[in-house]
Amino acid sequence: MSSEPLVKLADVNFTYDRRPVLKGINMEIPRGKVIAIMGLSGCGKTTTLRLIGGQLKATSGAVTVNGQVVSELDNDGLYALRRRMGMLFQFGALFTDMTVYDNVAFQMREHTDLPEELIHDLVMMKLHAVGLRGAQKLMPSELSGGMARRVALARAIALDPMLMLYDEPFAGLDPISLSIVGKLIRTLNDALGISSVVVTHDIQESLKIVDYVYFVSEGKIVAEGTADEIRHSDEPYVHQFVWGEADGPVSFHYPAKPFGEQIYTEAPRAR
Amino acid sequence: MPDNGLTRALQGLGRRVTDRIWRLGFAARFLLATVMYSGTALRRFNLTIREIYFTGVLSLIIILVSGLFVGMVLGLQGYDTLQRYGSSEALGILVALSLVRELGPVVAALLFASRAGSAITAEIGLMKATEQLSAMEMMAVDPIARVVAPRFWAGVISMPLLAMLFSAMGIFGGYLVGVQLIGVDEGSFWSQMQASVDFREDILNGVIKSFVFGAIISWIAVFEGYDCEPTAEGVSGATTRTVVTSSLAILAADFILTALMFRGA
Q1: ipTM over 0.85
Q2: How confident is residue B265, by pLDDT bands cut at 50, 70 and 90?
Q3: For chain B, what is the domain count?
Q4: DSSP assignment of B195-223
């Protein structure tokens, strides 16, 4: 196996509508590892994931995946690369007009000429891996949030990707589903020999399963390290995030005029 | 330039006009992409057949019932007018020509825009809002080829068939009222219709009209769905725009096509 990282972001900037979203991001995703990108909502985590998946193009800098610069690929090249990636969306993004079975079989039918018997066996293997072999005939509307996330995971690994991208995989899950999804991310990563990027703000669950963490705030990496280093970090932002403190570098109050001034200047109009 | 109300109003107007033109250009490029990426929809025709079921077959009830009532009203109104001139036996011609040339394609298209066009927009819009289209892209499947093109072609194929059924049902409605209820001579009703309705001039032109209307509705419906804001409000607005824009576009296109087809007839 090559020692080159599977994904590398070198001095990546991304601007949306003249607003800088990412500023000088440098990041490496080594092969076989689970990496988390953490930060508050709107800090640029999902944008980073979309740059890796080629859904967005960096304004400057280079995003390299398996030796290929994503922004330099044409449409065919990008689609060829994506066939070797899997992505789990925040709420699963299952195709609502298809059964669980057809959702998992979707990519196999689109990209291969495999006979239906073989597709059946492969779908069963993928569903077995996420513990939902018995749910093959259900429609997405009949699944709980946790089950939908697991089906989406089975669909994402359908073509044995080299890289898995997870966008908020723990959002809105009950504790049992949360733990199951967390374990599946780690187990599948190790069993399939893939690399994984998890974008999340669920600190406690993700620190149990990841090898390395990048903290992003206002489009910049403000801290990075192993799970243990993050847990014991003195960095004020990381400390506030890990321990869920209401006030700190991320202020409790939204920017406003001084309290007294606001009361005296706005109260008469309100009355 | 002074920053007064008039300047701001003119700037706002200019921005709205350029936005509309930009969007029209984007819609034209989208149509081009849909046609260019239609290989999947035509090669794997079962994808298109499935959509023909949802857009065409499920619109049958509203089309057939509406066609029947429109034909019945034409029978009543036509008889009332024709009998003043002693030409009530020409009722068959009036009903058939009105339906085949105008009412069939236009009314069926308006109903199709409300029933199927809105459904296509809502479906694609919700797929976008729930990230299904993004998921498809990330699975290296082009949503324009896999989702948009089959729905577009299903609309283009369904519309002429529905318009023909609308006209046939309307003629039957006119027959029920004119011949069975009022008592117009049955032989005159059918023979005059057969003698006066020309296949190329009337029927074929009607089919061409409905084909064009089908393309317009399907284009607007898939574009509005694909381009909508991925929120509940965005999908709702896009669905409304599909019905309003399609209806106006159908009526405008009908005038242009009628002027081109029937100006010497």
Answers
A1: no
A2: low
A3: 1
A4: HH--IIIIIIHHHHHHHHHHHHHHHHHHH
Q: What is the mean pLDDT of residues A109-133?
A: 92
Going by C-beta distance under 8 Å and a sequence separation of 6 or more, which residues neighbour residue A51?
Answer: A9, A12, A14, A22, A57, A58, A63, A70
Fill in the amino acid letter for B213: F
Does the CB of B198 have a partner CB in chain A at under 8 Å? Answer: no
Mean pLDDT on A126-150 = 91
pLDDT at A250: 73
| Residue to substitute from B53, B55, B130, interface A, most A β-carbons within 10 A | B130
For residue B16, tell me if it sits in a domain.
Answer: no
A106/B139 Cβ within 8 A: yes
**Domain for residue B103, yes or no?**
yes
Determine the topology of domain A29-56+67-233 in CATH.
Rossmann fold (3.40.50)
Residue A260 C-alpha, separation from nearest chain B C-alpha, in angstroms: 34
What is the tens place of the pLDDT at every residue in B26-39? Answer: 999 999 999 998 98
Residue A35: strand pairing partners: A197, A212
Counting Cα atoms < 13 Å in the Cβ hemisphere of A254 gives 0
Q: Round to whole Å and give the CA distance between A96 and B130.
A: 10
Q: Quick check: B138 contacting A, CB < 8 Å?
A: yes
Q: Where are the domains of chain A?
A: 29-56+67-233
A191 touches B at CB < 8 Å:
no
What is the extent of the structural domain holding B180? 37-262
Query: Per-residue pLDDT tens for B74-102?
Result: 999 999 999 998 888 899 999 999 999 99
Residue A267's Cβ-count burial label (10 Å; 0-12, 13-18, 19+) is exposed
**Residues on chain B touching A79 (C-beta within 8 angstroms):** 140, 142
- The answer to whether A68 and A44 have CB atoms below 8 angstroms apart is no
The verdict on residue B246 lying in a domain is: yes
Q: How far apart are CA B56 and CA A126, in angstroms?
A: 36
- Of B167 and B265, the structure prediction assigns the larger pLDDT to B167
Number of A/B CB contacts below 8 angstroms equals 48
